[in-house]
C-alpha cells in the first residue's frame, strides 16, 4: 500500500537534474559535431564523408521507395488524435466483414492485454516489495544506494528475509528501450534488405548552412532524433517516478489532461490553432482531474503535503515532455515522407539507450542493479515482461491505426484506461471515494463525447456526397 511509506520530496528533483546533466555527456558532443560540420570549414572532408557522420549530420537518401502501411505514423500517439489527417491509409482492407471483425478483435485484445499487463507490472515494480536475503544486502550495502532500493521491513525469523522496494525509474526506461530498439532493428533489417541507401552528401559540394529541408525521398539526420529521445525518456521517467507520490489511477487519469499541453505545443511548434470546443473539452477533463486529485490529497492525508505537491509537479512534467515528443515526431513525419514508424522507433530508442545507460554507469548504478536482478528472479521476470508488453503494445498501436484509423484506436485505449484503473483498485486495494468517481466520470465523459463528435464530423462529408449522388 502506497500509504505505508514516505519519500523525501526533494529526492525526485535531485534525481531529475542528475539524469539531465548526465544526458548532456551524450548531447553536447553531438551538438559540437553538428555545428562544426554544418557551420564551419574546420572539419576535414574525409570526416564529413564518413558514413556515420553523414547519417548523424546530413541524413540519408533512399534510392528506392520502401512502402510501408505505417508511413507517417508517429511513434507516440497523442490521446487527443489531433493529427488525424496524418494517419496512414487503411491498406488492403478486406471486403469480408467477418474478417474485419476478427482483425478488430485481434487489435482490441492485443492492446488490452499488452497495456493492462504493462500497467499492473509498472505499479508492482515501483510500489510493491520484493524479498531479498539479508546476507546479500549486508554484503552489497556499499553499492546499494537509496536511489536503487528502499528497505521496508526485516524478518530475521523467516530465513533472514528483507522486504525492499525498487526505486530506480531510469533503469526501467532503459530496460524497455533496449527491447524496443532490438525489435525496430530487426524489422528494418528485413524490410530494407534489398533497399540500397546512399548518403545525401555524395559529392564534394556540401552545403554547410542549409536548414532542415523537406525531402520526400530522404530520412532526417540523426541529430534531430536527440530532441524527442530526450523528451521521451524524461516523460517515461516522470511516469514511473510519479508512482512514488500519487496512486496509479491518478497517473492514468492524468493522461487525459495531455490535451492542454499538446494543444499549446501545436500552437508553438507548428502554428496550429485549436477550435473552441477543443479547449472546452480540455478544460472539462482538467476539471475532472482536479477533483480526483483533491480526493487523492484527502485520502492520503497522512502523507506529507510536499509529497503530494511533488507528485502533481511530476505529472505536469510528464505531460509536457510527452506532448513535446509527439509534436516533434509529427513535425519530422511531415517533413520527411519516407520516414516510417520503425525508422523513428529505431532512432529514438538508439539514443534513449545511450542516454540512460551512460547515466546509470556514471551514477554507479548500472552494475548494482544487474546484481539485484540476478539475486531476485521475480523482479527480473517482472522487468522482462514489462519490457515485452511495452514493445508489443507499440506494434499493436502501429497495426491498429493503419488498419482501423486513429479514432477506433483511441476508443480502445480509452477503455483500456478505465480497465487499468479498475484492475489497479482490485489488485492493489485502492479506494476511490464518491468525489473521486465524479472526477472519473467527468474525464471519461468528456473524452467519449469528444471522440464521438470527431467520428460524426468524419462521417458528415460522406453522407453529403451520397445525397448529392442521389
TrEMBL record:
Q: Which domain of life does the UniProt lineage start with?
A: Eukaryota
Q: Which Pfam family is an annotated match for this chain, by its short name?
A: UAA
Its annotated compartments are: Membrane
UniProt membrane topology term: Multi-pass membrane protein
What does the record list as coiled-coil region(s)?
A: none
Q: Which UniProt keywords apply?
A: Membrane, Transmembrane, Transmembrane helix, Transport
Question: What are the annotated GO cellular component locations?
Answer: endoplasmic reticulum membrane; Golgi membrane
Primary location recorded for the protein, binned into one broad class: membrane
List the Gene Ontology MF annotations in alphabetical order. Answer: 3'-phosphoadenosine 5'-phosphosulfate transmembrane transporter activity
- List membrane-spanning regions: 12-37, 101-121, 169-188, 307-324, 336-358, 406-429, 435-452
Extract the PANTHER family matched here. Answer: ADENOSINE 3'-PHOSPHO 5'-PHOSPHOSULFATE TRANSPORTER 1, SOLUTE CARRIER FAMILY 35 MEMBER B
Q: Which family does the record assign?
A: Belongs to the nucleotide-sugar transporter family. SLC35B subfamily.
What is the recorded name of this protein? Adenosine 3'-phospho 5'-phosphosulfate transporter 1
Q: Which organism is it from?
A: Sarcoptes scabiei
Amino acid at each position: 500500500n502506497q500509504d505505508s511509506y514516505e519519500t523525501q520530496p526533494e529526492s525526485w528533483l535531485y534525481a531529475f537534474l542528475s539524469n539531465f546533466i548526465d544526458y548532456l555527456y551524450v548531447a553536447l558532443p553531438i551538438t559540437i559535431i553538428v555545428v562544426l560540420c554544418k557551420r564551419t570549414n574546420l572539419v576535414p572532408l574525409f570526416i564529413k564523408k564518413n558514413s556515420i557522420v553523414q547519417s548523424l549530420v546530413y541524413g540519408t537518401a533512399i534510392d528506392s521507395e520502401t512502402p510501408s502501411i505505417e508511413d507517417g505514423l508517429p511513434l507516440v500517439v497523442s490521446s487527443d488524435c489531433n493529427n488525424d489527417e496524418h494517419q496512414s491509409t487503411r491498406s488492403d482492407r478486406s471486403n469480408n466483414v467477418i474478417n474485419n471483425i476478427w482483425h478488430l478483435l485481434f487489435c482490441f485484445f492485443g492492446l488490452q492485454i499488452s497495456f493492462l499487463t504493462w500497467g499492473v507490472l509498472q505499479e508492482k515494480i515501483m510500489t510493491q516489495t520484493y524479498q531479498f536475503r539479508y546476507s546479500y544486502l549486508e554484503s552489497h550495502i556499499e553499492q546499494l544506494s537509496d536511489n536503487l532500493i528502499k528497505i521496508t521491513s526485516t524478518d530475521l525469523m523467516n530465513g533472514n528475509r528483507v522486504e525492499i522496494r525498487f526505486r530506480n525509474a531510469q533503469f526501467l526506461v532503459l530496460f524497455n528501450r533496449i527491447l524496443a530498439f532490438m525489435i525496430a532493428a530487426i524489422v528494418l533489417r528485413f524490410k530494407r534488405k534489398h533497399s540500397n541507401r546512399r548518403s545525401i552528401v555524395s559529392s564534394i559540394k556540401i552545403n554547410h548552412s542549409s536548414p532542415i529541408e523537406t525531402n520526400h525521398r530522404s530520412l532526417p539526420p540523426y541529430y534531430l532524433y536527440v530532441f524527442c529521445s530526450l523528451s521521451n525518456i524524461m516523460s517515461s521517467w516522470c511516469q514511473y517516478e510519479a508512482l512514488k507520490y500519487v496512486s496509479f489511477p491518478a497517473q492514468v487519469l492524468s493522461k487525459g489532461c495531455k490535451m492542454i499541453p499538446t494543444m499549446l505545443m501545436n500552437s508553438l511548434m507548428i502554428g496550429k490553432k485549436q477550435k473552441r470546443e477543443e479547449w472546452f473539452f480540455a478544460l472539462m477533463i482538467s476539471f475532472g482531474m482536479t477533483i480526483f486529485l483533491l480526493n487523492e490529497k484527502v485520502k492520503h492525508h497522512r502523507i506529507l503535503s510536499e509529497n503530494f505537491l511533488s507528485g502533481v509537479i511530476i505529472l505536469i512534467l510528464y505531460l509536457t515532455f510527452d506532448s513535446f515528443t509527439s509534436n516533434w515526431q509529427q513535425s519530422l513525419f511531415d517533413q520527411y515522407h519516407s520516414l516510417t514508424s520503425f525508422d523513428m522507433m529505431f532512432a529514438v530508442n538508439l539514443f534513449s539507450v545511450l542516454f540512460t545507460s551512460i547515466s546509470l554507469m556514471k551514477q554507479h548504478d548500472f552494475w548494482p542493479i544487474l546484481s539485484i536482478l540476478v539475486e531476485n528472479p521475480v523482479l527480473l521476470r517482472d522487468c522482462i515482461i514489462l519490457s515485452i508488453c511495452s514493445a508489443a503494445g507499440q506494434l499493436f498501436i502501429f497495426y491498429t491505426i493503419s488498419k482501423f484509423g486513429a479514432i477506433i484506436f483511441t476508443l480502445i485505449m480509452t477503455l483500456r484506461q478505465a480497465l487499468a484503473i479498475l484492475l489497479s483498485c482490485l489488485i492493489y486495494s485502492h479506494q476511490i471515494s464518491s468525489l473521486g468517481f465524479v472526477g472519473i466520470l467527468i474525464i471519461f465523459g468528456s473524452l467519449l463525447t469528444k471522440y464521438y463528435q470527431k467520428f460524426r464530423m468524419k462521417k458528415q462529408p460522406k453522407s453529403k456526397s451520397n445525397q448529392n449522388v442521389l
